[in-house]
Amino acid sequence: MTSDQLSLCLGTNPVVVRRSMGFLRRAKIVCSDRGHAGGWRICRDLATITLRDLYAALEEPEVFALGHRSEAPECLVEQAVNAALDQAFAEAEALLLQRMGEVTLADLAEDFTRRHAARSARQGEHTHDT
Amino acid sequence: MTSDQLSLCLGTNPVVVRRSMGFLRRAKIVCSDRGHAGGWRICRDLATITLRDLYAALEEPEVFALGHRSEAPECLVEQAVNAALDQAFAEAEALLLQRMGEVTLADLAEDFTRRHAARSARQGEHTHDT
DNA sequence: CGAATCGTAACATATAAAGTTACATGAAAA
DNA sequence: TTTTCATGTAACTTTATATGTTACGATTCG
């Protein structure tokens, strides 16, 4: 698909798509072809790509919205709070990343297919009714 | 302490302090007194206040920086991704909140005291050297 | 009364994410 | 070879949000 097509699907802008897909290209998850009939392709087996890979490739801001105000604060109160929460944040992040690592694009494709069939069935029903 | 004093400690603005402390007041964690000699007081035993209580009271944006673009998307791809991650997010958030619920302000006060003593000792040493 | 303090509305500023424009580069088709 | 259609990317604009600021009313104590 081209950046223009993707931007329509995603309700955004082609340049924004190129910006994000660029990260995936550098991570060797997608390939891009320039020129006529060019665009974006997934260049690895869907079963080998996990949501964790995508997250890592996109370098999204951070897992948590909460975080330290500063990494090595002089303030002793802040130091105490950081010390108390560092472990908790690390554990929660590790858990989340592990779960993301367990979901492949192949899994999602399968689920999508199921959902698509279900929607089609519902629409068929509805068409039959009217 | 007054909002002005707190804002100096925190490197921010007195109105910002009132805004945040207002949430803690509504959660009955702190009390405020107006007028002369007024200001803010913690109005519960430190051992009964956890970081989770503070987080809940402050209604911070969200635990995670990542999240759903929309809660009930029409897009089937988005539905599949949400379904795959909902459980993971819920687990990680529960773990984090549990850990936050295990840390009381009394714990933090104790840790602060220890750090303060350590710093004083280091400064004493240093003074002794020079 | 008057100074000190919170409560809150209204407005200003800063920052980052997203969107936009513009154009160079590259590749296939005519 | 020229045209057309893509990506790659820099520069700028817009938008959203958190933060900071000003202003002033309400309350309390001396």
Overview of the structural elements:
The structure is a homodimer of 130-residue chains. With 130 residues, chain A is mainly α. Chain A has a single domain (3-129), classed as Winged helix-like DNA-binding domain superfamily/Winged helix DNA-binding domain (Arc Repressor Mutant, subunit A). Helix content of chain A is 62%, strand content 6%. In chain A, helix 1 (3-10) crosses helix 2. The first copy, chain A, is extended, with a radius of gyration of 21 Å. Chain A binds chain B through residues 51, 55, 60-66, 76-77, 79-81, 83-85, 87-89, 91-93, 95-96, 99-100, 103, 107-108, 111-112, 115-116, 119, and chain B through 51, 55, 60-66, 76-77, 79-81, 83-85, 87-89, 91-93, 95-96, 99-100, 103, 107-108, 111-112, 115-116, 119. The first copy, chain A, binds a DNA duplex (30 and 30 nucleotides) through helix 2. Chains A, B: One of its GO terms (cellular component) is cytosol. Chains A, B: Keywords: DNA-binding. Chains A, B: Pfam families: Rrf2.
